[in-house]
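for the writeup, i need someone to sanity check this before i put it in the appendix. the sequnce is what the collaborator sent (i think, or maybe the updated version? ugh). structure was predicted straight from it, no edits. if anything looks off just tell me and ill rerun, i have time this weekend
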Amino acid sequence: MIDASVFCAYSNTRDVHHNNAVKVISDMLSDKYGSPITTDYIFDETVTVVKRKCNRHFANEIGNFLLNSEFLVARIDDFIFQKAWEICQEEDGLSFTDCASIAFMRAFGIRYIATFDKGFKNRNEIEVIGK
């Protein structure tokens, strides 16, 4: 699974994590950590942040890249939404989107997440890629 922090760094050459993000994306596309997958919530967050921090052109580029690449952009359904809400009510320091990612990963047995977000570190069920 890939988090917005990686996609945002990938699309912004000035980001401190850009070079690492390029390597992580390459590793993910080579199936090094299983099938490359993200969610519609991550797509939303990525396009929004890139548009705000860079510009519409870069936001369009990353959005089209995600929609037309080997990445599966899965939809958060009612079951995952409810599980995310349960996690969100119990956890400090995580956005609702982060909670949705955790719920999605649990539901589908996904162990790896590519992220630069510190909120995913020190979680027993998750192994962070891109530290």
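Residues 40-53 form the longest helix (14 residues). The mean pLDDT is 93.
thx in advance!!
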